[in-house]
Specification:
- The complex is a heterodimer of chains A (447) and B (265).
- Chain A is mostly helical and 447 residues long.
- Chain A has two domains: 273 residues, no CATH class; 120 residues, abc type-2 transporter like fold.
- Helix content of chain A is 70%, strand content 5%.
- A four-stranded mixed sheet of chain A has the order 2-1-3-4, with helices on both faces. A two-stranded antiparallel ribbon of chain A has the order 5-6.
- By secondary structure, chain B is an alpha/beta fold.
- Chain B has one domain: Rossmann fold, CATH 3.40.50.
- Chain B has a six-stranded mixed sheet with strand order 6-7-8-3-9-10, with helices on both faces.
- In chain B, a hairpin with a 2-residue loop joins β1 and β2.
- In chain B, α2 packs across α3 and α2 packs parallel to α4.
- Classes of the chains: A mainly alpha (447), B alpha/beta (265).
- The interface between A and B is medium-sized, with 24 and 28 residues.
């Protein structure tokens, strides 16, 4: 004779397997790590392209007759000193009368891929007016900024020389390295420990928590309605108690959500690690320091992800699990009271409002994680699964608050499952109109 | 065994505003094919749900297979085919059946063998096609109904409750189901039919109970009921001809027609 736990397990297994087999699940599970991969690899790929294309085989046509070309070449070499394949530029001192011929020759070399591009330095350059660059990637903003900077450094050196600074002193000026920038923000309260990167990570995580809760809640709703409308539920509850069916569904759906999150978190961490291995740690560090190639602070964000303590990840997963459980039970209760998908959309509105209200609170919490509003909403069960992880990411939350929030959430989950179980028991066999509030009350409190 | 499969005493179930079942008492003999007859809304489904412990009666007692209907583990000995049919549309037939078997405590490997036998028996697995690998939504309505019928019988229950089992079935499939029911009876199982198609009840049932407006109108063995309500015997000569139903079955090719069975599915 089968006991309740083996039957519960059969329900959990069916819910889990049927859901993870769907195309929707597979696509959405793989999509997030691919998105992260794009964030992780694209800046590095772009940067490598930049590094390889500008440095080697650039021709400097020096028509200044003051040796600016050599200084610019030095400057380029300094800028590229960390790149393994750095090579000095090919400086050609030319007569101002033969600029046209030199340009024509250089253009032919670039066309035949003997060089990537050429820089023309002339009297206008010495005056600080213009410098001309022609090359295969003249549209690259990174290239243009790098060349302009190199020429400026060359000009500085030239003027220092003109003012009588000895060559060794000029050399030391021109070889001053570009320091790595460490940025820190300050707000009204003084030094702001929550860096922008942390805020982005927190917002991302909150967004994923919100999406997961909403999607799995809706998925639970449609699952219950399908079961009810196809009358399968009547067969199932002739074998198990409605409460067991409900518990099995909620556990199954929660397990699916957890699986997806583990793939997302694991996939992201694996990709970030793979990034360091593929491109080498210096390249990653350089990419993080470089504003031009990184873009959108994605490298800072990845650095913040790498720096994320595991304890936080585990707490986030715990909140996610309880969040799906809590909302899953509420959605299941809604599903049991309705007779069609159309009715469900309307009946689910109060539950959806709770989730959406929490989503509205994401931004204020990220901005001000220590406010009263953030404190209260990180304790209330309907919002804590999303708000508490944000607060924990942005600021150090007292352990008592985290534990308190979890205790309240667990108690609320038990309450929600009990409430849903009562509604489920009666609702599953009711096919007519939606119950009124007083009827619902009778369902819940009837013996 | 003399014990009744179902023994209900003074059962009443009331919903908000109306009485679904009023002071119902009935006894279903073990091994009988029992007809629960009545018009729509008579209280048949409510009675069945109370027997299955899906809902509890307000008053009265129900014993099933010798124990109270609320007993733990009792549901594993009962097979149920609800009137409204449906299964998980996106699931494969075999997976659904294994799930239903698991809910009755049948382990997966055992369930597979049972499923094979039933699929063969109800022609859902032939040389051309194994419908066990198809999704429920790919099946015709009749085939879905057969799959659900299999789901109700996989665990070889002692008591089988079939709510309008033949509705929507063509005569060939209806006959296949009838054969299965008669086979259950031969093996000493108790079968309860709920139906409003009287011909079916007459052709298959040993005992019947007619209910209307939640109350019992009459019950007893078919012979007793007929005797009680029959007129004086009249001698007459009849010319025996096959019915259209028999002809259809012969021409279409159904096998195993029970002698003396009549009526449509």
């Amino acid at each position: 004779m089968a006991d309740t736990s083996s039957k519960l397990w059969a329900i959990v297994r069916r819910e889990y397997i049927e859901r993870v087999r769907t195309k929707w699940f597979i696509i959405s599970t793989l999509f997030a790590p691919i998105l992260f991969a794009a964030f992780a690899f694209l800046p590095l790929i772009l940067m490598n392209r930049d590094a390889k294309s500008v440095v080697p085989r650039i021709v400097i046509l020096d028509a200044t007759q003051q040796g600016l070309g050599k200084l610019v070449a030095r400057s380029i070499a300094v800028m590229q000193s960390t790149a393994e394949d750095a090579s000095t530029a090919d400086v050609r001192v030319i007569n101002p009368d033969s600029i046209a011929q030199a340009r024509s020759d250089a253009t032919a070399e670039v066309a035949r891929r003997l060089a990537n591009g050429y820089i023309l330095l002339d009297s206008a350059t010495v005056r600080g007016d213009t410098v001309m660059y022609a090359g295969r990637r003249a549209d690259s903003r990174g290239d243009r900024v790098a060349i302009a900077n190199a020429v400026r450094s060359g000009l500085v050196a030239l003027r220092l020389q003109a003012n009588g600074l000895p060559t060794t002193a000029v050399d030391s000026v021109i070889s001053a390295p570009v320091p790595e920038l460490h940025a820190e923000s300050i707000n009204d309260a003084g030094r702001d420990v929550s860096t922008p990167a942390k805020a982005i990570v927190a917002t991302f995580v909150a967004f994923f928590l919100y999406m997961s809760i909403l999607l799995y809640g809706q998925s639970m709703l449609s699952g219950v309605i399908e079961e009810k409308m196809s009358r399968v539920s009547e067969i199932v509850i002739s074998s198990v108690k409605p409460e067991t069916l409900l518990a099995g569904k909620v556990i199954g759906v929660t397990a699916v959500g957890l699986t997806q999150q583990i793939v997302w978190v694991g996939g992201t961490i694996a990709l970030v690690s793979a990034r360091a291995m593929l491109f080498g740690a210096p390249a990653v560090a350089k990419a993080q320091a470089s504003g031009a190639a990184g873009g959108f602070g994605s490298n800072d964000m990845l650095a913040a992800i790498v720096a994320t303590p595991w304890s936080w990840v585990i707490v986030v997963l715990l909140f996610l699990l309880l969040g799906i459980l809590f909302y899953g039970a509420l959605y299941a209760a809604v599903g049991a009271t309705v007779g069609s998908e159309q009715d469900a959309r309307q009946a689910a509105t109060p539950v959806v409002m709770l989730v959406v209200l929490t989503a509205v609170l994401i931004s204020p919490t990220v901005t001000n994680p220590t406010s009263q509003l953030a404190l209260v909403t990180s304790l209330l069960p309907f919002s804590s699964p999303i708000i508490m992880p944000i607060r924990m990411a942005m600021t150090s939350v007292p352990v008592i608050q985290v534990v308190g929030s979890l205790v309240i959430l667990v108690a609320s989950c038990l309450g929600a499952v009990w409430l849903a179980g009562r509604i489920y028991r009666v609702g599953l066999l009711m096919y007519g109109k939606r119950p009124t509030l007083s009827e619902l009350r009778r369902w819940i409190f009837a013996s | 065994m003399t014990q009744n499969a179902i023994e209900a005493r003074h059962v009443t179930k009331q919903y908000a505003g109306h009485v679904a079942v009023r002071d119902l008492s009935l006894s279903v003999p073990t091994g009988a094919v029992y007809g629960l007859l009545g018009p729509n809304g008579a209280g048949k489904t409510t009675t069945i749900r109370m027997v299955l412990n899906i809902i509890e009666p307000d008053t009265g007692t129900i014993n099933v297979l010798g124990v109270p209907a609320t007993s733990t583990g009792l549901t594993d000995r009962i097979g149920y085919l609800p009137e409204e049919r449906g299964l998980y549309r996106k699931m494969k037939v075999r997976d659904v059946l294994k799930f239903l078997a698991a809910l009755k405590g049948i382990p997966a490997h055992d369930a597979d063998q049972r499923i094979d036998r039933w699929l063969d028996r109800l022609s859902l697995r032939t040389d051309e096609r194994d419908w066990g690998t198809a999704k429920i939504e790919e099946l015709s309505r009749g085939m879905q109904q057969k799959a659900q019928f299999i789901g109700a019988l996989l665990h070889d229950p002692d008591l089988v409750i079939l709510d309008e089992p033949f509705s929507g079935l063509d005569p060939v499939n209806a006959q296949a189901l009838k054969d299965s029911v008669m086979e259950l009876k031969r093996r000493g199982k108790t079968v309860i039919f709920s139906t409003h198609i009287i011909e079916n009840a007459e052709s298959m049932c040993d005992s019947v109970c007619i209910i209307a407006h939640g109350e019992k109108i009459l019950d007893g063995t078919l012979a007793d009921v007929k005797n009680e309500y029959g007129g004086p015997p009249v001698a007459q000569t009849v010319m025996v001809q096959p019915s259209l139903y028999d002809i259809f079955l012969q021409r279409v090719g159904a096998t195993g027609v029970e002698p003396g069975m009549r009526g449509h599915g």
